[in-house]
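dumping this here so i dont lose it
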């Protein structure tokens, strides 16, 4: 993903409505919808030191946890869909005894429907997502019922770009793991999407 795509995707965040709330640290957890999976440990340690010295300067973006199949109700806990690195830094400060379990964390609560889109947009705006995380995010949006055109319109990119990302999301898990570990280049991965047969891709 190039810089222009990152900028266009980041603009999507501005179109989402939410409400500002304060949540105790103990009631926050990393939401499975958070698209960023790869967070360097050193990055978390540096951010923890910054938060401890200057406090939390940016809201976490959350969605309420719901329980119950027939009539889901809020549990009082919140999943962090964007701001996972900040959450890990806060938890590190807690384990170091520098903040209490009920430390008040400023959050922006968004709807269940907007959670995945906001996670993708917010993460791209702060630090480019690893390609594999973005591929997975687009695939999840498709599974939720969005069309290629809807995804493209929402993020201001072409349908062709979305289709290419979706092809990459179907690549062999073994090859995707190599890509995540930076042992294979994106160009090599793209060349392998000519077939969807994982055994042929891995050959």
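and the seq i came up w/
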């Amino acid at each position: 993903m190039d810089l222009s795509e990152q900028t266009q995707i980041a603009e999507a965040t501005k179109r989402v409505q939410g409400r500002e709330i304060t949540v105790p640290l103990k009631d926050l957890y990393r939401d499975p919808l958070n698209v960023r999976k790869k967070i360097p440990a050193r990055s978390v340690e540096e951010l923890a030191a910054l938060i401890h010295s200057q406090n939390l300067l940016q809201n976490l973006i959350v969605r309420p946890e719901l329980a119950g199949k027939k009539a889901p109700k809020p549990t009082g806990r919140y999943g962090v869909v964007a701001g996972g690195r900040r959450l890990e830094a806060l938890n590190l400060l807690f384990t170091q005894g520098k903040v209490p379990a009920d430390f008040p964390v400023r959050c922006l609560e968004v709807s269940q429907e907007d959670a995945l889109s906001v996670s993708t947009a917010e993460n791209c705006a702060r630090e480019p997502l690893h390609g594999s995380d973005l591929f997975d995010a687009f695939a999840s949006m498709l599974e939720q019922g969005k069309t290629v055109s809807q995804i493209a319109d929402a993020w201001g990119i072409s349908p062709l770009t979305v289709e290419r990302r979706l092809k990459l999301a179907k690549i062999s898990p073994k090859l995707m793991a190599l890509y995540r570990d930076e042992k294979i280049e994106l160009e090599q991965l793209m060349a392998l999407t000519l077939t969807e047969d994982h055994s042929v891709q891995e050959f």
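Residues 1-14 have pLDDT under 50 and may be disordered.
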